[in-house]
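During the reporting period, we have paired protein sequences with backbone structure tokens. One record among many follows, to show the layout:
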Amino acid sequence: MLSLIALVVGPKLARQMPEQKNPTELGGAILFGGIFAVVLFATAAAREHLGIRGIYAVSVLSGLTDMDAITLSVTGLAHEGKVTATEAWRAVLAASMANIVFKAGIAAVLGGWRLFLHVAIFFAIACGAGAVLLAFWPA
């Protein structure tokens, strides 16, 4: 339903292609590897010293900028049996909600209030649904 609304509203927005870059450059892979290493270390340290609440905190902080690293880290911990599957999906959901809030901020700062108002309703619905899942899904 949200996609249909976005499809109707989307064509009214001005579109401009961003500058294209070479996708085979090594810089992006090295940057991701560095971020992944930091997040993996932070997740393991948080689990060891703070328990699951520490993992949630690292998830929110990491989710502000990148979802891949925290998703891989937490699912790796779940695969190893160091966290439960429920704790893992909750951490990934918390990270994705933080990512949505960060992107809303980017839309407001870089795109102005008009763009922010266009995306805010969709972001609010997504964050609201995530909050309901976190609050009411049995632990």
The first helix runs from residue 2 to 9. The radius of gyration is 17 Å.
